Every structure is written in structure tokens, then in C-alpha cells.
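Input (structure):
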């Protein structure tokens, strides 16, 4: 059985998933470009190799891609959580199962989120840049214990972020469409509406499950204007949740003090936020902890083969 891996880092730090696939008789063909593929490149790659299964990254698996490869592609297994890059309705229509690994990266993404929060509140990245540039200047920061953090989305990652912050003595408020009341009862997290959260939080961190439909550019000019003046934004969730032009406007007007972004609507990222001095940029590295990456890759491989066996 031939499969392709399009996530460019698959098996690079740990061969466990590759060894597992090979032990099950799979022929594995890796992404030939070493980066995120474009829509046309995905089609070209898949049509050349004609695999039965695919371990996917964040490349666009659009309706066009699925229609042009459905004659041979039987299963798509995402190495990661997000599914926004896959046209799920078309996949269902064509009978192509799409699986993901929602649990494996949760801890790593939550830890990166906490790191970005510290960097924003205590100006760690700014001080690093200024000292390396020869300037011995200091910018006053904020204490977590004196800060209200707003978490938008209390799923696997949002809950972990809240638990970390709770342990650090932070005031945590959160919004969620389908809140886990039992979990909330056991934690010092105040549930509010999204409308209440924006003006109340000194820092807003996004952990929403999707950036499609009404959630596309959810953080727009109007919502940025409702955030507390001098607040910060963190996004380790979905890049398309943010209207980048509106974010730049809010930062340049000093309505927002700064932002830290790990996911982008278009990757690799070359957009307007690169020129914003008060934005920390990260290359979609939320899951890039060694143990996490290994778990994700092995889980995606197991998901793929289980689905293939179910279809046999």
C-alpha cells in the first residue's frame, strides 16, 4: 500500500511512525518540496504517486484537490488538530474519511501559549532585540498575578492554558459556546460571553476550533475596537481567525499594545505583520516539542491504517 506524507517534518526527529508504517507493508513517499504545498502542487504530487492514503499537513485539500484524486485516494489522516484546510463536505460526499490527532498536540500548544503570554507581558522578546542591537533600555511590564487573561475557547488546549494560568495566580475569564460545566466547577475560571470578555481582558488568547464560515476573520476591526486599550492578543489557534489589516491598525493606533501569532492564514508567512515591531511571530510551531511531535505522527499513522483496514 502506497501512502504519501505531505507534512514536511514527518519522521525528521523520530522515525517511529515511519518504522511503524513500513512494518505494516507501506511504501512511503515524502513531500518533495520540504515545505507546505500549494493546491496545484498537492494535485501534481498525488496524481504522480497515486497513493491509497495520505498523512496530511496544513496544505489546501480543497474540493478541487479531492475531486481530482478521489479515484485512488481512500483516506486522509491529518497530523494535527485543525481541519480547516480540508473541504470536509466534499470529502464526505466522495466517501473519503478524514481523521485528525486532537489530543496529542494540546499540551505543547498550551505551553507555547504560556510562553508567548510571558514574553508579551514582560517584554522578553523586545528586551532581547534591544540588547542585541546595543541598546540598554527597559520597558515596564505587567505581572500575571495582576492581569486578567481572557481565553476564547475552552477545548483541550484552552482548558490546559487556563489550568496553567490558574496555578500562576492569574485571574482567568473564558468564553465557550458549549462550556464544560463540570470542568468549570472544579477550576477558578469565570465563564463570560465573548462580548463581555473582550473589554475585560488585559490579554486575549484564541483557542477556537474553526476559522471557517462566520468565524473567518472573527477578530476584525469592530472586535479589536472593543478590546481594552493597551491589551494584548495571542493566537496559537487558527490563522484565519484574524483580519491582519485590522490587527495592524489596532497596533499602530496603540489601541493594542502587542500581539503574538503562531498561525497564519497563508503559510509560510510573508505578510504585513512582519513589519510590526510590537508583534512576536512564530512559524506555526505550537506542536514542535519532540515528545508531542512523535505522538502526533504515530497517532496519525495508526489512524490512517485503521481507517484503511476498515475500508478493506
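Output (sequence):
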Amino acid at each position: 500500500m502506497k501512502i504519501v506524507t505531505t507534512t514536511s517534518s514527518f519522521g525528521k526527529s523520530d522515525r517511529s511512525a515511519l518504522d511503524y508504517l513500513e512494518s505494516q507493508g507501506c511504501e512511503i513517499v515524502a513531500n518533495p518540496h520540504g515545505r507546505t504545498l500549494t493546491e496545484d502542487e498537492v494535485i501534481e504530487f498525488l496524481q504522480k504517486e497515486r497513493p491509497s492514503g495520505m498523512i496530511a499537513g496544513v496544505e489546501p485539500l480543497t474540493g478541487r484537490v479531492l475531486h481530482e484524486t478521489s479515484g485512488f485516494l481512500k483516506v486522509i489522516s491529518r497530523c494535527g488538530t485543525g481541519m480547516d484546510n480540508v473541504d470536509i463536505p466534499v470529502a464526505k460526499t466522495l466517501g473519503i474519511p478524514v481523521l485528525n490527532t486532537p489530543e496529542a498536540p494540546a499540551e505543547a500548544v498550551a505551553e507555547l501559549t504560556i510562553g508567548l503570554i510571558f514574553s508579551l507581558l514582560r517584554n522578553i522578546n523586545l528586551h532581547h532585540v534591544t540588547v542585541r542591537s546595543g541598546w540598554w533600555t527597559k520597558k515596564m511590564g505587567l505581572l500575571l498575578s495582576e492581569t486578567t487573561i481572557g481565553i476564547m475557547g475552552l477545548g483541550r488546549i484552552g482548558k490546559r492554558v487556563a489550568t496553567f494560568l490558574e496555578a500562576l495566580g492569574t485571574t482567568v475569564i473564558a468564553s465557550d459556546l458549549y462550556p464544560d460545566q463540570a470542568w468549570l466547577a472544579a477550576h477558578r475560571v469565570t465563564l463570560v460571553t465573548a462580548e463581555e470578555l473582550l473589554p475585560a481582558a488585559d490579554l486575549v488568547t484564541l483557542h477556537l476550533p474553526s476559522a471557517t464560515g462566520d468565524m473567518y476573520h472573527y477578530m476584525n476591526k469592530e472586535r479589536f475596537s472593543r478590546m481594552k486599550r493597551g491589551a494584548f492578543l495571542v493566537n496559537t489557534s487558527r490563522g484565519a481567525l484574524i483580519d491582519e489589516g485590522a490587527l495592524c491598525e489596532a497596533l499602530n493606533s496603540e489601541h493594542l499594545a502587542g500581539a503574538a501569532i503562531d498561525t497564519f492564514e497563508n503559510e509560510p508567512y510573508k505578510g504585513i505583520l512582519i513589519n510590526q515591531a510590537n508583534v512576536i511571530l512564530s512559524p506555526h510551531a505550537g506542536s514542535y516539542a519532540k515528545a508531542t511531535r512523535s505522538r502526533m505522527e504515530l497517532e496519525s499513522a495508526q489512524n490512517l491504517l485503521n481507517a484503511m483496514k476498515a475500508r478493506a
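Notes: The longest helix spans residues 290-311. The longest strand covers residues 256-261.
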